[in-house]
Amino acid sequence: MKRRKFFRILRLIIGLILLVSSVDGNWWEISSPLVNPTNLYDICPQIINNHTQKKLSICSQPQGILKAMVMGAREAITECQSQFKTRRWNCSTVPGTGRFPKALRIKSRERAYIQALTSAGLTSAITRACARGEVADCGCDPRARLMPSKGWEWGGCSDDLAAGEKLGKAAIDRKSDDKRDFDVIVDLHNNEAGRKALQKQVQLVCKCHGVSGSCTVKVCWRKLQALNNVAKSLMERYEGATKVKLSKRKKWKPAGESVRKPTKKDLLYVSDSPNYCEADESLELLGTRGRECNRTSVGTDGCLLLCCGRGYRTIVRMEEEKCNCRFEWCCKVKCEKCIVRRDIYICN
Ligand SMILES: *[C@@H]1O[C@H](CO)[C@@H](O)[C@H](O)[C@H]1NC(C)=O
Ligand SMILES: *[C@@H]1O[C@H](CO)[C@@H](O)[C@H](O)[C@H]1NC(C)=O
Ligand SMILES: *[C@@H]1O[C@H](CO)[C@@H](O)[C@H](O)[C@H]1NC(C)=O
Fold first, then answer.
1. Which ligand is nearest to the CA of 86?
2. 31 near 98, Cβ under 8 Å?
3. Are 271 and 112 within 8 A, CB to CB?
4. What pLDDT is stored for residue 15 in this prediction?
5. Closest by Cα among 291, 318, 326 to 89
6. For position 54, what pLDDT does the model report?
7. How far apart, in Å, are the Cα atoms of 143 and each of 51, 117, 124, 147?
8. What pLDDT shows up at residue 261?
9. Which ligand 1 atom sits nearest the alpha carbon of residue 17?
10. Is 296 in the pocket of ligand 3 (CB under 6 A)?
11. Where are the alpha helices (DSSP H) in 161-309?
12. CB of 343 shorter than 6 A to ligand 3
């Protein structure tokens, strides 16, 4: 075997063993770029044989679902990074590994958000894979066609979210023997909150058929919307997340007296967040030194909040920009290139 190929495979196997040992609670670590969703399944049998003592629920998933898990987690991480772009912790992964920092093992608000969003991402990815015929146990929603319609007909393939939820739940929710563990109960609640947020994202889409654009026949089906909406709505739940503590009989209750009782759609956390301001090697956190901030904003992207009171420095960057654009008949816009001076603010 060629040396380079050998090392690539070795890296893949090590990555897979690392992730498999942390799967279940942190199943989303399969989103690592080290893992190629197409040959993940080929490698699984070897890992199962060598670690027979350990139950590797992830490798027992059918290939279609395994692939959807990888894709769903990747999509969720992209959405998380766009929602947290301006926050002290920007949802970044540990450089070179693609996995989240150890800080995410703390049952914080941030963990609750990731838990819910990856659960929704997984469910959405499985549901869409079902509609494409990539998963054996599911397909299009047969019940959609039984619902009443007015002025249009059912057609096409309706996304079967209920089936996706069932398969997603089986893939990531831990088994009932773990349910005595308080931490697991909180994770399971947040997984469910993610699926609940996804339920609002099934919408009717229609297409017109008829001569030259007329709508003689209108055909409609139910389609899951992009994960972006879920990421946004979970952000509101993140802001209003409820801190809980262990109550009698292995259940949770709100940690404060005045806190309203959270619903199934709310996110739960157990511990306060770590300090995302300063770098912390043991938690694999980078801190906010060197982050770009906005001098005039009073929001999370503002230098005041983002730099955690350490102040900021200004650097001047010369940037090329399109300028003096003219419209030319017909139909072009011609621009010149100008050098503009831009002030950039960087956290100390
Ligand atoms: C599993 O064990 C066999 C024999 O001990 C070894 O050749 C193989 O490389 C191992 N595979 C992995 C993925 O560790
Ligand atoms: C997040 O912030 C770190 C610095 O703390 C930076 O290196 C990284 O590129 C940022 N990542 C994203 C996804 O914005
Ligand atoms: C900085 O924040 C202000 C106020 O929120 C906003 O109007 C402006 O567009 C922001 N600037 C940049 C570069 O994002």
1. 2
2. yes
3. no
4. 57
5. 291
6. 44
7. 42, 27, 18, 7
8. 83
9. 13
10. yes
11. 161-172, 182-199, 227-239, 303-306
12. no
- The three-class DSSP label of residue 9 is helix
Q: Are 22 and 136 in contact (CB under 8 A)?
A: no
Q: What are the DSSP calls for 277-344, one per residue?
A: SS-BTTTTB--STT-EEBSS--STTBHHHHTTTS-EEEEEEEEEEEEEEEEETTTEEEEEEEEEEEEE
Which residue, among 75, 28, 66, 26, has the nearest Cα to 227 in the 3D structure?
A: 75
Q: pLDDT: is 56 or 290 the higher one?
A: 290
Of the listed ligands, the closest to the CA of 279 is: 2
First to last CA, the chain: 49
For residues 270 and 242, give the distance between their C-alpha atoms in angstroms, rounded to a whole number.
8
Alpha-carbon distances, residue 27 vs 68, 110, 144, 173, 308 (angstroms): 12, 16, 31, 10, 32
The pTM (predicted TM-score) of the whole model is 0.81
Ligand with smallest separation from the Cα of 16: 1
Name which residue sits closest to atom 11 of ligand 3, judged by CA: 294
- The structure tokens listed for 200 are 């609002």
Q: What does the pLDDT average to over 170-186? A: 70
Count the helix, strand and coil residues of the chain and give each as a percent rounded to the nearest 5: 40, 20, 40
Residue of minimum CA distance from atom 6 in ligand 3 = 297
**pLDDT band per the 50, 70, 90 thresholds, residue 179:** low
Site to substitute for ligand 3 among 292, 293, 296, most atoms within 8 A of C-beta:
296
Please give the helix or strand (H or E) that residue 224 lies within, else none.
strand 217-224
Amino acid at 30: I
Q: Residue 13: CB within 6 Å of ligand 1?
A: yes
Task: Provide, rounded to the nearest whole percent, the portion of the chain with pLDDT above 90.
Answer: 49
> Mutate which of 6, 46, 54 to test ligand 1's pocket (most atoms within 8 Å of Cβ)?
46
Domains within the chain, CATH numbers bracketed: 2-269 (no CATH), 292-347 (3.30.2460.20)
pLDDT of residue 53: 39
User: Which two three-digit tokens encode residue 241?
Assistant: 């997340």
| Mean pLDDT, rounded, for 278-305 | 93
